[in-house]
Specification:
The protein has two domains: 2-38 and 184-241, Medium-chain alcohol dehydrogenases, catalytic domain (Quinone Oxidoreductase, Chain A, domain 1), CATH 3.90.180.10; 53-179, Rossmann fold (3-Layer(aba) Sandwich), CATH 3.40.50.720. The chain is an alpha/beta fold. The protein has nine helices and twelve strands. The protein starts with a strand and ends with a strand.
Length: 244
């Protein structure tokens, strides 16, 4: 069994809501399954409950080599979407390709990423932008979106305040700005979400998706795990392992 904690936590034992769990098939490695809950719940929510993604659409995924980013790429491909991955390093983008990204962009080499997006989409733009970055990407996100596109904001890694932001392109393109968070959702919402996530990732007692696990640290080295993550070189999930 894997569970969604109400606000995160590092512990050998944890108390969770009785409905916020997913049963793991007996033939699926628990360590692998443990990399699913938070990131796949977040990614599923963004893709299906907020953006209402449809097969044939195109999605631009920022921080695509992160835990949520890799989950978004995997679920989007499973749902029949074309994915564009944006990340900071070429080795991260190689992993994104392996997860099905049809186009990859190194934003450090191509800060005006919207130009590559428009070239790839023949000038149309993408239908969805999944964005944990925020302010620093705002204008470029709008430029990247097609008419009636959806910009899903779920973080502020690049700041929360946008100075001198022109709202007119949103009106002209009929862009929807959708903001979401998982932690503050109701217990019933989380229960229903986890039921859908479980059905999406486990079919016929087998794991249908594979969380990308970068490395594993023992619980005693949690601070080293944080330091490792802060270097911005990790890909996917870093796990903390406890002795039971």
């Amino acid at each position: 069994m894997i569970a969604l904690l109400p606000g995160g936590g590092y512990a050998q034992y944890a108390k969770v809501h009785k409905d916020h769990t997913i049963d793991v098939p007996k033939d699926v490695e628990l360590k692998l399954a443990s990399g699913l809950t938070e990131v796949y719940a977040t990614a599923f929510q963004i893709l299906h409950l907020v953006a209402h993604a449809k097969a044939g659409e195109t999605i631009l995924v920022h921080a695509a080599a992160s835990g949520v980013g890799t989950a978004l790429l995997t679920l989007a491909k499973k749902a029949g979407l074309t994915t564009i991955a944006v990340a900071s390093q070429d080795d991260k983008l190689e992993v994104c390709k392996s997860l099905g990204a049809a186009k990859v962009i190194n934003y450090k080499n191509t800060p005006e990423f919207q130009e590559e997006v428009l070239l790839f989409t023949d000038g149309k733009g993408v239908d969805i932008v999944a964005d944990p970055v925020g302010a620093s990407n705002a204008a470029r996100n709008v430029a990247s979106l097609a008419k009636d596109g959806r910009w899903v904001l779920y973080g502020f890694l690049g700041g929360a305040a946008i100075e001198n932001f022109d709202l007119r392109p949103l009106l002209m393109k009929r862009i929807s700005l959708l903001v979401t968070a998982l932690k503050s959702r109701s217990n019933d919402y989380k229960r229903d979400l986890l039921k859908q996530v479980g059905e999406a990732v486990f079919e016929n007692e087998t794991l249908q998706v594979k969380p990308f696990i970068d490395t594993t640290f023992p619980m005693s080295k949690a601070s080293e795990c944080h330091s490792y993550m802060e270097q911005n070189t990790s890909i996917g999930k870093a796990l903390l392992e406890v002795d039971l």
